[in-house]
Amino acid sequence: MDAYPLPKNDANFAELTPLTFIHRAALAYGNHTSVVYENIKIKFTWKQTYERCLRLAAWLQSFGIRKNDVVSILAPNVPALYESHFGVPMAGAVLNTINTRLDAAAIAGILRHSAAKILFVDHQLLSLATDALSTLTSRPEVVLIDDISSTKRSASFGLQYEQVLASANPVAYPPVPVTNEWDAIALNYTSGTTSEPKGVVYSHRGAYLSTMTLLLQWGVGLQPVYLWSLPMFHCNGWTFTWGMAARGGTNVCLRSPSARDMYQAISRYGVTHMCGAPVLFNVLLDPTECRQLTRPVHMLTGGAPPPAALLESIESVGFRITHAYGLTEATGPALVCEWQQAWNLLPAAEKARLKARQGVGALTLADVDVKDKETMISVPRNGVTQGEICLRGSSIMKGYFKNKKDTDAAFKNGWFMTGDVGVMHPDGYIEIKDRSKDVIISGGENISSVEVEAALYRHPMVLEAAVVAMPHPHWGETPCAFIALKKEYASNEAGIEEGDIISYCRDKLSHYMVPRKVVFLEELPKTSTGKIQKFILRDVAKGLQKNNPKGDANSSRRVEREINDINRQPEGRVEHVMVLSRL
């Protein structure tokens, strides 16, 4: 073949980018609904959404935005946030979506580190953004995203989103072509602290491949109706921001998705797909709002491995669950629990156990393995031997922005080290066991907090459970359990005590794995995407003594006060665990 060179040309080669999806959607599904918002007060077609994205890209260029400039946006799931996923990179810029639950200091840290040129901010978050901007010496230009479902406008504010779109000229400023698929498309921060922020840089190539992979492995067909129960700022909505354009789907946007709003949207729009952490199951199973679905809704979930009992409960309502694992650094999906037809014949409990596994590698990855992190030797495929989950492939991040030290540490011998502990089953499916920092080492024995939590979730009164290490004078560490009871038991009139939970665990677990301390809380602290904030609980557990009162009200109130104090610190303290199975 070398004697007959066949060079690349414009006809047989194009740089991979998800920006091609929306142009295709405008042509193939131009009159199909692309976005609905606020109970259908706002409704766009794909032709209209494409036009709005072109206008956004044109205005950014006319304002002076150039290739690789960072454009930030602070907003809930509103149409402007969706449009930014296309409009910003169409201008050649890099999109930075900011977690809306961060405090002003953390947001300021992101804006400072990213050197964002423009900040789009939702009208309800303007005060928060103003506080963040007040601490900066070099500030981005601010564009207000006004409430497009209202006729009222903030006339006193200089730049407003709808006005800048109306003023833009897409003919004079057409989209900037992607000439290198390795160029950055998005910058997602896993930490909002000002000292060492971690900005994960995605490439156009990685975003394209990750989007296609997840659509294929989840089996998303043509024209799905997708409910935005997952924040778009989180890993760019697990790539479904771009994916819905690829499938010509309908984006159902909710500003604040409550159980009632989600069920109403499912019924009104015929929702077919949605995503969220397992904590969303508890929201949907709230006895005051839960309702039986008239048609199945496919839900992709991640976070701590969902207990089998919880999976059975949510599926009995009509949701069809697919479990996945990923992380911000992997552009979202890394493992998907692909369902095999033979498993349909298994009992419900066994099917739920299999669904709780994280699965096989995403198609965009070249390889996935579980290795001894010291020797980098693969662990046996026995479902028992633990090691660190390692990944490599085109969907892995380019690296951490302005952070060579952490970038170099994340890559080892050609692998990305996730920091997650897992096992490889004989069938090649991986099951996560813990974050490496969440493994409890008691008397030399490794205890999986996930395994202890799974036992606690089987208790009929337990709604939420989290287990962390508590210092112990003899064993070094022992498990400490934090529990929230189901709504009907929340007043604890049933009289359940710490000793009851400990006795229950003794019947389910090896003795050394049983929690030595149990604390009852009204609600466990969580991130905006539903991940339980174990770093807060670890801080609290350090101060707990073995002989504290057995979960009495005074003890619980004291612990809740401590949690509230810690929670006032920037959410940016959360380590880089924002993702699918690390949400």
UniProtKB/TrEMBL annotation:
Cofactor(s) this protein cannot do without: Mg(2+)
Signal peptide residues on this chain, from the entry's feature table: none
EC number annotated for this UniProt entry: 6.2.1.12
Keyword set includes Ligase: yes
Keyword field contains Cell cycle: no
InterPro entries per record: AMP-bd_C, AMP-bd_C_sf, AMP-binding_CS, AMP-dep_synth/lig_dom, ANL_N_sf
Domain AMP-dependent synthetase/ligase as annotated: residue spans: 24-401
Keywords from the named record: Ligase
CDD domains, per the entry: ttLC_FACS_AEE21_like
UniProt domain AMP-binding enzyme C-terminal: residue ranges: 451-531
Biased composition annotated in UniProt, kind: Basic and acidic residues: 555-566
Molecular function terms, GO-annotated: 4-coumarate-CoA ligase activity; trans-cinnamate-CoA ligase activity
Gene3D superfamilies linked: 3.30.300.30, N-terminal domain of ligase-like
Region Disordered, residue ranges: 546-566
Catalytic reaction(s) noted: (E)-4-coumarate + ATP + H(+) = (E)-4-coumaroyl-AMP + diphosphate; (E)-4-coumaroyl-AMP + CoA = (E)-4-coumaroyl-CoA + AMP + H(+); (E)-4-coumarate + ATP + CoA = (E)-4-coumaroyl-CoA + AMP + diphosphate
GO biological process: phenylpropanoid metabolic process
PANTHER family for this protein: ACYL-ACTIVATING ENZYME, BUTYRATE--COA LIGASE AAE11, PEROXISOMAL
Family as reported in the entry's similarity comment: Belongs to the ATP-dependent AMP-binding enzyme family.
Protein's name according to its UniProt entry: 4-coumarate--CoA ligase
Species of origin: Rhynchospora breviuscula
